[in-house]
Amino acid sequence: MGFGLAIEPQLWALLFTMVRVGAAFIAAPVFGAVAVPLPVRITLSGAIGILAMNAQNITAPSEVFALTTFVAVAGEALVGLAIGFVLQIAFAAPLVASELIGTSMGIGFAQAIDPVNGASSPAIGQFLSILLTLLFLSVDGHLILVDLIVRSYDAFPPGNWVAPERLRAIAFFGGYAFLAGLLLALPVGFLLLCLNLVVGMLSRSAPALNLFAVGLPASLAVGVVALIAAMPAMGDYMMVIVHEVLEMTAKLVFG
């Protein structure tokens, strides 16, 4: 009987801590991927929850079934979702860039199932998303995310909600996905725009010219060559995206 009473508060505190950690992992791009099995997510949430309990002073609500407890759990879930959603915004930039590039190249119809979110996305978008994920992992972004989740208990103790100005900052940061996607697609998109101008002038000078027989293969060839040539610059800008989103996540946590 004594052993059961001693372990029950610790188990409840762990489950309460796992709410914030699990919510952040659900919204985060790497941990929340569809390819990651649910038992793995639960195990990771439990492990990080134990780490947070040992590193921070986390006090769980005294009563399990109470209105204040449900409000506190909702607040913990909101904090975790806000942390993970900021990262998800930046990882939407390759999808925006792929839509611009794929439409200009004429392969916008080339869709495939994205293993990250389980939805259909352009093939170029999958390539850019995987590249951004590898760069994110190469700079230990996943470890920084775990560190921010653990340290978030200092800035947002259990029972405190995210301030409205920080939620407004997240909403304004949503425009960064379109800005980063446009800048990411700018080198390839500029060359394809120049090609379309050339093809348009050819069509005006030679109306009998079949644009579908000339323009589509030329757009595809120029797009592939432009992607190969612009890949170093795109990789450098992806590193900028990773640093920007990690900085924004730190600002969300620490203000």
Automatic annotation (TrEMBL):
Transmembrane segments: 12-32, 67-91, 127-150, 170-199, 211-231
InterPro entries: FliR, T3SS_IM_R
Highest rank taxon of the organism: Bacteria
Main location: membrane
BP GO annotations: bacterial-type flagellum assembly; protein targeting
One Pfam family named in its UniProt record: Bac_export_1
Keywords: Bacterial flagellum, Cell membrane, Cell projection, Cilium, Flagellum, Membrane, Transmembrane, Transmembrane helix
Intracellular or extracellular location(s): Cell membrane; Bacterial flagellum basal body
Membrane topology: Multi-pass membrane protein
GO CC entries: bacterial-type flagellum basal body; plasma membrane
Function, as annotated: Role in flagellar biosynthesis.
Family: Belongs to the FliR/MopE/SpaR family.
Name this protein carries in UniProt: Flagellar biosynthetic protein FliR
